[in-house]
Amino acid sequence: MRRFLPDTFTILLVCSVVLASLLPASGSFADYFGVATSLAIALLFFLHGARMSTDVVIAGILHWRLHLVILLTTFAVFPLLGLALGLVPHSLLPQPLYLGILFLCVLPSTVQSSIAFTSIAGGNVPAAICSASASNILGMFLTPLLVGVLFSVGGHGRLSWDVMEKILLQLLAPFVVGQILQPWIGNWVRSKKKILTPVDRGSILMVVYLAFSKAVVEGLWQTFSPRDIAVVVGLDMLLLGFVLTFTMRGSRLMGFNRPDQITITFCGSKKSLASGVPMAGVIFAGQSIGAIVLPLMLFHQIQLMVCAVISQKYSAAAETA
Hints:
Blueprint: H1 8-22, H2 27-51, H3 54-60, H4 64-84, H5 95-105, H6 112-121, H7 125-153, H8 161-191, H9 193-217, H10 220-223, H11 226-253, H12 258-268, H13 273-283, H14 290-320
Helix pairs in contact: 1-9, 2-8, 2-9, 3-7, 4-5, 4-7, 4-11, 4-12, 5-14, 6-7, 6-12, 6-14, 7-12, 9-13, 11-12, 11-14, 13-14
């Protein structure tokens, strides 16, 4: 039963939401906390750049067919499904929560959990490392562009050049600096994972607390009912179930071997909370993003629980064989 229980980070996320609900940041404290959060996000993407081996990323290009399938699933199939969910009546799915689901659909894949589940299941781990890394690098460009295209098509606003500039300065620039310094500091950063993990998770918790603080002040919990949250959970499960089925059967029909099928399944079905929350803070700056990140937070826990079970089944099947 332990695999169905939330992990420590998920519990901390829930605590951040509870804290924001009881003691929301406001006034000058919210302003100072916002500056600190922006700096933490920049540090987060700098560390991503410093950790990621350039050789691994370049080597991943050689298995282009596998990576193409994963990237198309992440940045094409998911967004199309998000648009399809726009057919759900607003009386059942409030518009702000639907926008959160649509935003979830344009995010890159996770890195750590995709690689971990691929490893447990006996998949192609080097390909998973390359694919997840490429997804996050491309996501810094594709996610904002897809937000601009899909939100404008639905009449929900569009992405401005000011937002693109903020993304380049706050997310991409630190990542590039980290990549430049990677040959000198990469090994040290990777060796200090336990020390630097609080920076990763701490920056996300800061964004979540700030986002929900603003949303609570604006009446988030008075706007959405428990039924609304249950609908989001149901649609998150439906979304994940469809993509898992698509990646499992599709990769088999396309003739990939078993390790590659596993890699496509786990890398193609994930959405990154670590990248999504900071991106939401930049893309939707000045807006209430509590409803935007709520579907992503729920999807994060659902994907971990479901993929934990699937990876164990793959592993058991391999041992039996």
